[in-house]
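Atp-binding transport protein
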Amino acid sequence: MVLVTAVAVSNLEKDYGKVKALRGVSFQIEEGEIFGLIGPNGAGKSTTLKILATLLHPTGGRAEVFGHDVVKEASEVRKLISYLPEEAGAYKRLTGLEYLEFMAKLYAKDSRKAEKMLKLGIELSGLGERLNDKVSTYSKGMVRRLLLARALMVKPKLAILDEPTSGLDIMNAFEIRRTIKEFSKEGVTFLISSHNMLEVEYLCDRVALIHKGRILEVGTPRELKERYNAENLEEVFMEAVKNV
Ligand SMILES: Nc1ncnc2c1ncn2[C@@H]1O[C@H](COP(=O)(O)OP(=O)(O)OP(=O)(O)O)[C@@H](O)[C@H]1O
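Structure:
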């Protein structure tokens, strides 16, 4: 099997004024992988994801998505990705169904494809009858499911998901993880950020530990646990930060 590089991040730096959010971040993701970027609050996860989603310009370094530079070829990159932001709440005046319909029409090349996309979005949202209610009446978890359905119904080559299960109850989080695994089998590549290390351990093929804008370790959960003689990724992380 020929490995295709989905994401190549090399020495990425991002300053917000005096704050150095990223201090030389590098990692690669192969096509079809579920890759987890994990670390504590303020580590630089969202910043890395936003740069890959073409929403932020890096201060230094490079990032490519399927060989396209995220700065110089941003419009090419946007055709290949879906991005789920950490905090999102737009389109409150629409019903969930109207929102999915609007997005399907925007993304699909013809009306038949839009229908198919919408059907998938409805199914993925799991919102049933509530899709007919305005988004403003949804709980945080319901909004999350709607946005995730939107992100996946377009079948992106790369899905960039910032804390996809944050704020969701156990059942919803379980469903989301199952959907991610299913889509991965169909060839969608995932970059997921999380500070829930146990969830990531279950879900991800490989993970990168990020702390204070630097990558501390990259590997499969099993490799990292062996490297640190640890029971789980939480223990790996606690050991890894000791050496910083
Ligand atoms: N717009 C901004 N202006 C100034 N500083 C920012 C801005 N966005 C992020 N930062 C800072 O950059 C650093 C990295 O933030 P980032 O949001 O990437 O972390 P994170 O790992 O996603 O954290 P969390 O898990 O809390 O979302 C933090 O110190 C944060 O305060």
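The radius of gyration is 18 Å.
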